[in-house]
């Protein structure tokens, strides 16, 4: 008679630190899932908030809800640091935690959460490369998104704000006049040129005169993962040359952060995100200058892939 197979010994999750950088893949996260001090955040927006599954234990970094300033007139506005810190403490975030943030679209809105954390001085955070699609393709475990999570013990997160990571329209206008700065627009080329209407009502079509088109999807490769650093460096070189200051814009300040992540991975510095983005600049009042046509678009591009990727939302 064959003796029963001995149960496999429990292998505790690997410690989450140190992070290998601001981007981790499923193979890095899987053996660390459930480790003490590792917090997984789901920053999905729009229709992707309704994904049927989530990474087990993932807490909602709700950019469509409490993690944006709803007293502001513009969508997805960065909250004041103290308000953001209070919401993060409600999520249970502690100063010594390590964070992995993902979204259900792939790499779409999760970099916004990563950039917000950097803006309040928290650097132990990384984006999950490829998001939930890459996680499920890897075979990572999931749970029903409707399953309630146990209440989080309030954290002790402390905001240590950094200036300059988010900027306003006046700083963008200055950058457009600065020969050592480039303003890069993450929207599709069709929206940049004004050929496609803006998805938010009341906004003018086109782009800021002097801005350069770099659709966020052009930083993504196979499986919706970020391209390797050398390819990212080349993409930014083609778009901005050797200009030393980069400002990123999009529809509402969300996919602009994909460009910020790509530039960071490429080793570039002096990076800012225009928080109001086209949701502010494109308003008819106060009537900031708008251009249409292909001026400022880089190369032939991959307009088809960019346009389809942008259907994930209006950011």
Explain what you see:
The protein has 315 residues and is of the alpha/beta class. The chain contains 10 helices and 12 strands. A 5-stranded parallel sheet has the order 1-6-5-2-4, sandwiched between helices. Strands 8-12-11-9-10 form a 5-stranded parallel sheet, sandwiched between helices. Strands 3-7 form a two-stranded antiparallel sheet. The N terminus is likely disordered.
Largest pleated sheet: 5 strands, parallel
Low-confidence stretches: 1-8, 299-312
Strand order within the widest beta sheet? 1-6-5-2-4
Give the end-to-end Cα distance, rounded to a whole number of Å: 64 Å
Strand content: 5-15%
Number of helices: 10
Instruction: Kindly name the structural category.
Output: alpha/beta
Order of helices and strands: EHEEEHEHEHEEHEHEHEHEHH
Give the overall average pLDDT.
91
Overall helicity: 25-40%
Characterize the overall form.
globular
The beta-strand count equals 12
Radius of gyration: 20 Å
Describe, in short, the structure shown.
By secondary structure, this protein is an alpha/beta fold. It contains ten helices and twelve strands.
Describe how the helices and strands are arranged:
Elements: E1 23-24, H1 26-29, E2 38-42, E3 53-54, E4 59-60, H2 81-90, E5 98-102, H3 110-119, E6 125-128, H4 131-138, E7 143-144, E8 166-167, H5 169-177, E9 181-185, H6 189-193, E10 212-213, H7 229-240, E11 245-249, H8 256-265, E12 271-274, H9 277-281, H10 303-310
Helix pairs in contact: 3-8
């Amino acid at each position: 008679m064959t003796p029963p197979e001995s149960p496999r010994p429990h292998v505790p999750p690997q410690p989450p630190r140190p992070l290998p950088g601001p981007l981790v893949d499923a193979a890095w996260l899987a053996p660390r899932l459930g480790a003490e001090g590792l917090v997984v955040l789901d920053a999905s927006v729009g229709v992707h908030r309704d994904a049927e599954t989530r990474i087990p234990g993932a807490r909602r970094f709700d950019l469509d809800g409490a993690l944006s300033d709803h007293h502001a007139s513009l969508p997805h506005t960065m909250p004041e640091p103290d308000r953001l810190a209070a919401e993060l403490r409600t999520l249970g975030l502690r100063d010594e935690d390590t964070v992995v943030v993902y979204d259900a679209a792939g790499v779409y809105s999760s970099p916004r959460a990563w950039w917000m954390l950097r803006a309040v001085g928290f650097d132990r955070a990384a984006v999950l490369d490829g998001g939930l699609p890459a996680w499920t393709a890897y075979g990572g475990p999931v749970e029903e998104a409707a399953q309630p999570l146990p209440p989080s013990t309030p954290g002790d997160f402390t905001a240590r704000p950094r200036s300059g990571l988010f900027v306003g329209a006046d700083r963008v206008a200055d950058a457009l006049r600065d020969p050592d700065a480039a303003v890069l627009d993450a929207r599709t080329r069709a929206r940049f040129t004004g050929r496609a209407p803006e998805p938010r009502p009341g906004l003018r079509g086109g782009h800021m005169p002097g801005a350069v088109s770099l659709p966020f999807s052009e930083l993504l490769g196979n499986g919706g993962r970020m391209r390797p650093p050398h390819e990212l460096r080349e993409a930014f070189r083609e778009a901005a040359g050797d200009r030393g200051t980069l400002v990123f814009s999009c529809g509402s300040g969300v996919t602009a952060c994909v460009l910020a992540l790509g530039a960071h991975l490429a080793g570039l510095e002096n990076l800012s995100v225009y928080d109001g983005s086209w949701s502010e600049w494109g308003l008819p009042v106060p009537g900031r200058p708008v251009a249409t046509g292909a001026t400022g678009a880089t190369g032939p591009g991959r307009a088809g892939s960019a346009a389809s990727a942008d259907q994930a939302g209006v950011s």
